[in-house]
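User: I'm curious whether this sequence folds into something compact or stays loose and floppy. Could you predict its structure so I can see for myself?
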Amino acid sequence: MKNIIVASTSTLFGGDYLEYLLEDLEELYKDVNDILFIPYARPDGISHDLYTEKVGVAFKRIGKSVKGIHEFKHPKDAIKNCHAIFVGGGNTFVLVNELQTNNLIEPIKTAISTGVPYLGTSAGSNICGISMQTTNDMPIVYPTSFDTLGLIPFNINPHYLDIDPKNKHMGESRETRIKEFHHFNNQTVIGLREGSFLRVNGDIIMLKGPHSARIFRPDKTPYELKTNHILKVSN
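Assistant: Here's the prediction. I'll summarize afterward.
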């Protein structure tokens, strides 16, 4: 049974890394002591070692130890033998490219299908959807496919920002970009605001956190899903 947290972000403004999620992570990882961290997304180009060290400091607060997948000679075996997974944020193109290069997409899907708990933040949440095509990131590398884990039957747009009528910025809004996506694609897109996350237990997907989420469906008016409500997806 799938046991997943899909979070918009790892860090809220003014807070420490993963601080706002720690109570929920204690529940997610309650039956495990060791977490396999996948640092491939590398925010700001941080090294895999330093990224893993940062994550380890956060998880130490709830009594969990962390080891980076880059520390293993055979990454596929690391996935096969792990008890829990965390995929951090950064650049989704870099993350997906590295997962594909190491042939890890299917092993991760298999692990999660057998109940291995999974946390994804930002880029790590993008890859939970059908594809990575609603990421906010620059295409600095070229993965062989935009297809991702497909753990949830829709796409994610993390760090979702609402249109601010007072803002003089003339670039496209997130809503505009998602509408552009829907000219060529049919899957639902969930705009996750900062501090909000999806809690997935088996086939039940519930929105958690302080904010509603914005739901985009092709040729439909976007609407808001209230927090603590179950998400039902139909195109």
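Summary: The two ends are 24 Å apart (CA to CA). Residues 75 and 214 are 36 Å apart (CA to CA).
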